[in-house]
Prior knowledge:
By secondary structure, the chain is mainly alpha-helical. The chain has helices spanning 3-30, 33-59, 74-103, 111-136, 146-152, 157-185, 189-218, 224-235, 270-287, and strands at residues 240-252, 255-264, 291-298.
Amino acid sequence: xxxxxxxxxxxxxxxxxxxxxxxxxxxxxxxxxxxxxxxxxxxxxxxxxxxxxxxxxxxxxxxxxxxxxxxxxxxxxxxxxxxxxxxxxxxxxxxxxxxxxxxxxxxxxxxxxxxxxxxxxxxxxxxxxxxxxxxxxxxxxxxxxxxxxxxxxxxxxxxxxxxxxxxxxxxxxxxxxxxxxxxxxxxxxxxxxxxxxxxxxxxxxxxxxxxxxxxxxxxxxxxxxxxxxxxxxxxxxxxxxxxxxxxxxxxxxxxxxxxxxxxxxxxxxxxxxxxxxxxxxxxxxxxxxxxxxxxxxxxxxxxxxx
Length: 306
């Protein structure tokens, strides 16, 4: 895991831990459904940062006989677990609490305390989101949108933190709006409605995360620019007549499996062919910074390649 990802995760972990404690204390004082929903959300986010750190540590293990391509996909697996936690502990819990309070309204007590806690939570969450944005900007292409980054990043930690923090910021604003409406109208059902809205928001974010992590778990090709660099490197390698076909896939955020069929000069001896294959591998490694596992099969271009 890159240092920037770890920094963003640690900032989110400590921010969410402090927010969860403050919100839960606030709920005990005010009995606000919105605060309880947000406390559950922040508790889930805190656990999620721990899961991301755990997944990163597991993913750094060396390849062995059981997992010859390494443990990189564990980072995707634990990020997928984060989506499940956010869906259940965050989204479904907030929906349950909101619906329960909507059917059984409870007068909000000490609204001033709730507003103070929400303000503190907004400040801490803004710090966490700012850190994640700053670190993501180091790796996000300047000409690409944030949505593109979330959809295409092969390292799962920063997109997860960005989505969680964005959802938390929006959720806090929704909780603040619901609490304000409840106080102004003297109707606690507005607070319950805020909790339901937070739950729906978290469910949507969790589904987006699950879809993206599923794609990475199943196996995704590198982005088009990386693919083109690999193809150009092979085509420009000594003794190469042409690229027949290429299959490449991320087996971890920083690990890329490349399998290609290449047509080499037909007059090469076995020793010269072996040297040409080594040259093609070196050409690929020179243009791709990721850790590479390369398999090159020499072949002859036919009308239909297999």
